[in-house]
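Why should sequence recovery work at all? Because a backbone constrains its sequence more than one might expect. Tight turns favour small or flexible residues, buried strands favour hydrophobic ones, and helices have their own preferences. The token representation captures these environments compactly. In the example below, the structure is given first.
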């Protein structure tokens, strides 16, 4: 049974995060919520006025309490079951003689004025008794404004073997935020609070880093692996906390991986979790994102395409973190099978860690939200010339001499019982090398696409585009995803990333595509964040200029080296042919002197006002032809 909260809204072809569950379950209001529930239980006759349907999620996160009546404002909501009562119209409140009335809402003054005459002698209280501090708010006039709850979770670990680092920029300053900062709370594996602190943010465009080693030293902590709650205060422009999360091995150990923000909205399902290959162990990191325990057998796993779910038999404490070995639930599952995660809205998009049992190597990547609200869209088979190829999913093919690349299409909505697809491979100049029809892939598809076999004639590197192919019929919903896996030939080190399809670089729009960083579609410009890795790592970037229909013949792309305070150090201009790509290292573009002037915390702002580019970033440690080398790769974020 899924937790009774609404975390993600899908309306009119757009989707956005909900803020109510964040307000109700925010770590800093947990004690206030407990006090509120205790106070409600003291009432002789308690009535609840629930004008917006907020009572059920409050009870789901903080427990139920006895009441004598639940009253609603909308006549259409009368007669429903709520908190053991049948809802009544609010005008009937005057018949109850309530001693206390709970208004199940924030910003309750106006609502109280509407009903005070119906319970003139009652004590009236509301959710305003459990607010975060006013000076944290971006919009003090509307408490549930999503900008007031720009929150996210990150996986943070520090041990003798590895450490993690979160890097991002103050992109809110570019939208006018005057004095934003981060409030952080670190939870241990059992949900206990290890540390709270405020993390200052630099000027607009400057970077910040939360390094597990610094946190551990600052607060005198033992080794930990837990959940970092991040709240960006007083922001503008974006209600999403975006970041890059890097994992490093200690003392030069070949442990290196990159992933990005957790996606702040707990979902019913996640997919794209790979089953272990021979010699591997796959661990799912579950971060309980709420102030209540996850009950035993409330979350589980199944092989994609199977309805046989194996349930995790142990509870997970409030805000606790657990590493669940997939083999304990699905001992027979093996790559290229994929695992579907039954999450019940209890945790944000999870990361998984793959351990190579024969080497001291591991990698971390993330699963993706599996949509439950989609249906097949018959219009996708004929979007017309203005949208050309329509939805495309561009994925890198790394230099073939040093890396092996494979791809695996991944069902990412419950509506996808089949995927009618083809793969088109392009060289860096945008020339089509080959097209591979894939047919109507079943939900349980295990057909791994091997780029060594499929990209003959490619040359050094390029990219593949997965797209819909309705030649043999079939249906689709626009939520196409795939896993790309990259193996370094000399070392055996592996990185993988997964992402979804979009419509790229068309002036015409379809629903919310081509997506825009801010504002309505179409999104036809680029602003990507490329964090530069610490020594001795070099930074990789693969930019792909995908286009659903013919667009500008070449990009006009600026690679702007920025220091940690948001100052421009140096700019290099590059041009990528339409339909092509560019693979580069920061050391190839910016010389040693420029990188020294940029200093610690530097990054590259990838800017293009003529087209939307899609990017992948990573770090590389050591020569690619050495067995001791390692690398990471994941898709980038923009703002």
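From this structural description, the recovered sequence reads:
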């Amino acid at each position: 049974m899924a937790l009774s909260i609404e975390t993600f809204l899908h309306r009119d072809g757009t989707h956005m995060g909900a803020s109510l569950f964040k307000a109700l379950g925010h770590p800093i209001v947990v004690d206030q919520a407990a006090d509120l529930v205790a106070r409600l239980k003291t009432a002789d006759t308690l009535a609840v006025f629930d004008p917006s349907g907020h009572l059920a999620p409050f009870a789901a996160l903080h427990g139920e309490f006895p009441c004598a009546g639940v009253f609603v404002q909308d006549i259409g909501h009368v007669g429903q079951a709520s908190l053991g009562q049948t809802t009544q119209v609010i005008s009937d409140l005057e018949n109850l003689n309530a001693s206390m009335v709970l208004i199940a809402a924030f910003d309750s003054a106006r609502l109280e004025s509407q009903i005070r005459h119906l319970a003139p002698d009652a004590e009236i209280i509301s959710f305003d008794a459990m607010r975060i501090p006013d000076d944290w708010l971006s919009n003090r006039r509307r408490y549930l404004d999503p900008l007031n709850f720009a929150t996210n979770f990150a996986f943070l670990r520090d041990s003798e073997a590895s450490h993690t680092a979160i890097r991002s920029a103050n992109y809110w300053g570019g939208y006018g935020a005057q004095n934003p900062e981060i409030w952080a709370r670190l939870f241990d594996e059992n949900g206990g609070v290890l540390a709270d602190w405020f993390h200052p943010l630099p000027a607009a465009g400057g970077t910040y880093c939360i390094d597990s080693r610094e946190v551990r030293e600052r607060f005198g902590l033992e080794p930990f692996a837990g959940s970092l709650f991040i709240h960006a205060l007083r922001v503008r422009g974006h209600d999403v906390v975006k970041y890059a999360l890097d994992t490093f091995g200690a003392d030069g150990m070949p442990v290196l991986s990159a992933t990005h923000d957790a996606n702040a909205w707990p979902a019913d399902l996640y997919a794209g979790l790979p089953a272990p290959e021979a010699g591997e162990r796959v661990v799912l990191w579950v971060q309980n994102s709420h102030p209540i325990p996850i009950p035993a057998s409330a979350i589980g796993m199944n092989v994609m395409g199977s309805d046989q779910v194996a349930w995790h038999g142990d509870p997970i404490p409030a805000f606790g973190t657990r590493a669940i070995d997939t083999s304990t639930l699905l001992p027979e599952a093996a790559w290229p099978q994929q695992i579907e995660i039954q999450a019940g809205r209890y945790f944000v998009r999870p990361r998984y860690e793959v351990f190579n049992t024969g080497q001291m190597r591991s990698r971390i990547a993330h699963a993706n939200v599996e949509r439950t609200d989609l249906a097949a869209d018959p219009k996708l088979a004929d979007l017309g010339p203005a949208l050309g190829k329509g939805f495309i999913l561009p994925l890198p093919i790394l230099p073939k001499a040093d890396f092996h690349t494979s791809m695996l299409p991944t069902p990412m909505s419950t509506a996808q019982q089949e995927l009618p697809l083809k793969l088109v491979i392009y060289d860096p100049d945008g020339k089509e090398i080959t097209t591979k029809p894939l047919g109507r892939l079943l939900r349980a598809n295990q057909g791994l696409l091997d780029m060594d076999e499929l990209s003959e004639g490619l040359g050094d590197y390029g990219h593949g585009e997965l797209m819909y192919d309705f030649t043999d019929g079939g249906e689709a919903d626009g939520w196409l995803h795939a896993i790309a896996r990259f193996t370094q030939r000399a070392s055996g080190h592996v990185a993988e990333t997964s992402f979804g399809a979009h419509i790229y670089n068309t002036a015409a729009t379809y629903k919310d595509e081509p997506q825009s960083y801010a504002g309505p579609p179409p999104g036809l410009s680029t602003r990507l964040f490329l964090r530069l890795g610490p020594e001795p790592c070099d930074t990789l970037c693969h930019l792909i200029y995908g286009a659903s229909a013919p667009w500008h013949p070449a990009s006009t792309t600026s690679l702007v080296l920025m220091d940690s305070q948001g100052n421009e150090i140096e700019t290099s201009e590059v041009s990528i042919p339409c339909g092509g790509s560019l693979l580069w290292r920061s050391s190839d573009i910016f010389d040693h002197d420029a990188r020294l002037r940029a200093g610690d915390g530097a990054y590259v702002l990838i800017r293009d006002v003529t087209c939307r580019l899609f990017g992948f970033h990573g770090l590389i440690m050591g020569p690619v032809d050495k067995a001791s080398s390692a690398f990471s790769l994941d898709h980038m974020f923009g703002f």
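A few observations help interpret the result. The chain has a mean pLDDT of 95.
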